[in-house]
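Morning, I've got a small favour to ask if you have a moment. You're getting the sequence in one-letter code plus the fold written as tokens. Thanks so much in advance, here it is:

===
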Amino acid sequence: MSSSQSCFNQQVVIVTGAAGAIGSGVAEQFARRGAKLVLVDHVAMIDVIESIAIHTTDHCSFKGSVTDGAFVAECIDKVLDQFGRIDVLVTVAGITSFGEVESVSEDEWLNVLNINLSGTFRFCKQVLPIMRRQQRGRIVTIGSLLAKNGGNTRPWQDRSDMAGSANIAYGVSKAGVHAMTSYLAKDVAADGVTVNCVAPGPIATPMTTGLSDNIKNQIPIGRMGSVNEVARAVLFLADSDSGFITGEVLDVNGGMWSD
């Protein structure tokens, strides 16, 4: 392996939401670069385990929900028992909510926040003391363009777009992730730990199959993003050479939003 391909050699990397399109893509890119992978999801991870096994034999997986604080704590304890350290945490686990404001029940609102926002918090809270002790660590959260732009739809032009685009519950949960990233980054900056966020725009995954042409046509670059483009942004922020970048929300959205 070249130095550029082995920059995470022997580093212990946790990826939550590892069974999904972005999570599995992130995990595979780390595996290609020599990392020891810890995969977390609430469903079976057979496909991603097979994909990373081509590149590394140092991996383990934990099946459980990020909404369960006891599961999260147990997961981190087992990772330390097996590997002795945690170098990188990538919090991909999340769900989407669709439809207009009136269609969002209180239960759905709370569930989206519990998984996307509180689930991210639970893993960060468990991992940060370990990284502080190590005086080294990288956390990369996954936010969203929808946390910034008030939604991709233009309901005054075509209200039917609302059915296929993530809604207010999703956007608010991801805005919370952006704010959390900023707070955590300042909290641990003096401890050799960085906390950054990748905020994807429309990415071609099974989750975005219902996206309308009206929304796709808003992308200045003229196409949907790819999973690998998100994964490489994550790897950039997790790299040891990115130690002067913290509290950043890195947009990967084809030009739909810039700040």
User: Anything to note?
Assistant: The longest strand covers residues 193-200. Residues 105 and 111 are 10 Å apart (CA to CA).
